[in-house]
Amino acid sequence: MHKLLPYGIATLLALPLPAAASCGAAFCSINTSWDVQDASQEPGARFDLRYEHINQDQPRAGSRKVAFGALHRHHDEIATRNRNLLASIDYALDADLSFNAMLPIVHRGHAHIHNHMGAQFLDTWNFTGVGDARVTARRRLGGSEASAWGFIIGAKLPTGDYELRNGSGALAERSLQPGTGTTDAVIGAYYARRLPAQGWSWFVQPALQVPLDSRAGYRPGRRFSLDLGTRHEVGDRLALMLQLNVLHRTRDAGRDAEPADTGGSSAFLSPGASYALSRNWQVFGFVQLPVYQYVNGVQVTADRAVALGVGTRF
User: Fold this and answer.
1) pLDDT digit string (tens) for 155-175?
2) Which of 33, 38, 61, 226, by CA, is between 20 and 30 Å from 120?
């Protein structure tokens, strides 16, 4: 693709949404920004649509897998099914400055056993809703024909619902809801470089997300992510990619939070590929595989996740 498009590796479509365990809300932490896809840095707009499939059905305590109900909790989590659709639009003023807005649509099914005074009740939720929007700006500070570096700054906005209930009127846990109800600051940095070897490039991108407030007795934990990846172009249209995605999340806080069973650290290996359908259209896909997972308390985790997407510029 670099033969078709000018080389510019700094225009971020969006910071990736990091995964979260707990009772189940999850997004892939894969970086699918246009700079990773080696897209054009020409001024103009770009649109990206990404679908994620994540089944969290493996209870975990610390770094070890455990059987369902092996460690008694107020809620024994069974599974969460996540089907996410993330729409992003990016506008680049030039190679040095761009702005992005991203909105997720979340379809989530969840089941757990509610333990109450010796009795057990099955609670289930199945809902589709708008999640929290994210707006960011990317500023390129330096680089050369073969490299670029800069910073990202922005915010996650409280656009998602945090009061969804099931058919019985039971309120879903706050970590399960489409939104947190809070405004979060997002800051990050990036460095990317094309290697001397033909068709090879690599990037690194750390990012931090910090809630600025709390809402209705809930404050989500801080999130730190680190993405490290390489890309190899196979001809003019096909590119193979490999990423290491690291995530650390602190415990949630507040009267409606579950600090004992939220937060943790994880690392994922994410192989993928992108294909240019034309100068302005490309498709991509990733499989995300955990290489390390550590959770506080007991949480449900996934053995794999899949992300598929399409992007265009106009």
Assistant:
1) 999 999 999 999 889 999 999
2) 61
Q: Give the pLDDT confidence of 213-255 residue by residue, as tens digits.
A: 999 999 999 999 999 999 999 988 999 999 999 999 999 999 9
In whole angstroms, give the CA distance from residue 310 to residue 314: 14
Q: Pick from 250, 314, 289, 303: which is nearest to 79 by CA?
A: 303
**Length of the chain, in residues:** 314
Phi/psi of residue 261, nearest 5 degrees: -125, 35
Beta-strand runs (E) in 96-251: 97-116, 119-130, 134-144, 147-156, 184-194, 200-211, 223-234, 238-249
Q: In this structure, are strands 200-211 and 184-194 parallel, antiparallel, or unpaired?
A: antiparallel
pTM equals: 0.88
CA distance 259 to 22: 10
Q: Is the dihedral of CA 113, 116, 119, 125 positive or negative?
A: negative
